[in-house]
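Homework help thread (please don't just give me the answer)

Our assignment gives two proteins as sequence + structure token strings and asks us to describe the second one. The first is just a warm-up. Here they are:
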Amino acid sequence: MRGLSFLLVGAMLAGCAATAEQPMRSAQKQQEYERLIAGKVAGPPVSCLPTYNANDMIVIDEQTVAFRQGGNHVYIAHMPHGGCSNLGRPPYAMLTRQFGTAQLCRGDIARVIDTASGITVGSCVFGDFTPYSKAG
């Protein structure tokens, strides 16, 4: 019986840990996020971006990064497991590396570096990418 109560407590704690935490973002970043997806419809999540250009990346907050692909498409990536500490704050930048492919995929690791010193100050893992496209 005692073992069963430990299992129940463990299951309850795991359920609490699995709850998605809402990202904290400034009003300006929230407006930027809303502008990016305005007039677009979300599609089913995909595991990789069809193409990837770091210049098209927009940091929304420590847990959310957007990738523009032309004017009609945007992919939103949410970082599971707490996001990327310090991402989006000067002088920090996200650095990704792809080996053997030009795609950025779920599970790829990104480093957050101090652009002045080149020192890694954090890292995170990409989750799925949700595509948003203009309807019609």
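The one we have to describe:
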Amino acid sequence: MIEDNAVKDVFPTGPIDRFVAPIQRFLKVETTSGVVLIAVTIISLLWANLSNSTYTAVWETPFDISFAGWSLSSCLSHTPNLHWLVNDALMTIFFFSVGLEVKGEMVHGELHDIKAASLPILAALGGMIFPAIIYSILTPPEASHGWGIPMATDIAFVVGCMALLGSKIPHGLRVMILTLAIADDIGSIIVVALGYSGNINWFALGLAFALLALTWLSFRTGIRNLFIHGVLAVLIWFAFVQSGVHAALAGVALGLLTPVAPWVDRSKLDNLIVRVGAFINSEKRLDKNIRYEIYNTLQKSSREGISLQDRLNDELHPWVSYVIMPLFALANAGVLLHLDSFNGVTSSVAIGLIVGKPIGVFVFSLIAVKCGISRLPTGVTWKVLLGGGMLAGIGFTMSLFVAGLAFADPAHEMFLASSKIGILLGSILSAIIGTLFISFAGVKKTEGLEKTESL
């Protein structure tokens, strides 16, 4: 194994690295993205309540792309603005990263073994059904279309809360809740597709699936040029926009199609590196062209020794965590906090997240374990599992996304504002209650183990 210093010594350092290195380390900390989201949410709320006219004006600023007489606005049924750009374009990249993560879990991770993944998947199902039922029972009939709002779990905030808990949260629960959140994302995407798509343009939808098939075929035939795949991705996104099915599905589908296996086998790459090293050491001087060809081959083979799914996931992560999701929060979390905004929709969403999520996760987990379908993860008790279900009530990003689709009609603007308040309230309380519950449950468990060990 190459030592860290040996790797660092390969690359020259400059004065700028003294400033960049701490920032890079800060961005890699799991809790950072959650902290950024919280900060941006507070900014959005303050902005909307202190100067709602400027907040609204900024996000309603028209956005258009024109080229050789063609314009984006001419192809849409509405005039695109900055809010549309964030929700329908940038969020497609977010869903693409979700698709990449799901693909990795399906091939190499927790979702690979159905038996191992059965508990978080069934728990996620319960955690979606119960909040939807509670919302449907409590909400006013005219707002019933928002049943999908309290069904989601926000991965970034959940990861942040678990990081704060540290060793008090068992590893088995950490893996289970992350897998549950991923399964939740899949379920939310299905909900968006089935419950919140507009009138279907079947020709555009057929074209989108034809282009997806072409993308799959291009990967199967070995086409690796990212420019070609980028053009196909834009065409697929545009076809979904035209189809009436939300473009989020384009991102997920492309993520699921991305190859997980590296193009260059690891053993062949290792063998190449050894052979090149021996070749260079055996020659006193190398011709410039030969040296260039060797280094170019090493660069290409080392890049292709990592799967496209891993590379894209790694490269997109900082952009999604620190640009796209904060922009989404800034554009969607700003809601006027008036007393008349607190109504049945607010309480329905909040109770769905705070109560429905943990009950659904716990009940479906209990049934799965008692029926022998699944087993509890190592080190996880029923009490700790209940705390994990409480953390799953942090809906935020996906809940705000679904709320924007459910109440997109201007006539439902009041319901949209009320649901956003319910999401914020439910997510904050779920985070606080879940963190405290697991913290105390973990302390008691640790004390019990210490007493056992001392005996």
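TA reply:
I won't write it for you, but here's a hint about the kind of observation we're looking for: Residues 443-455 have pLDDT under 50 and may be disordered.
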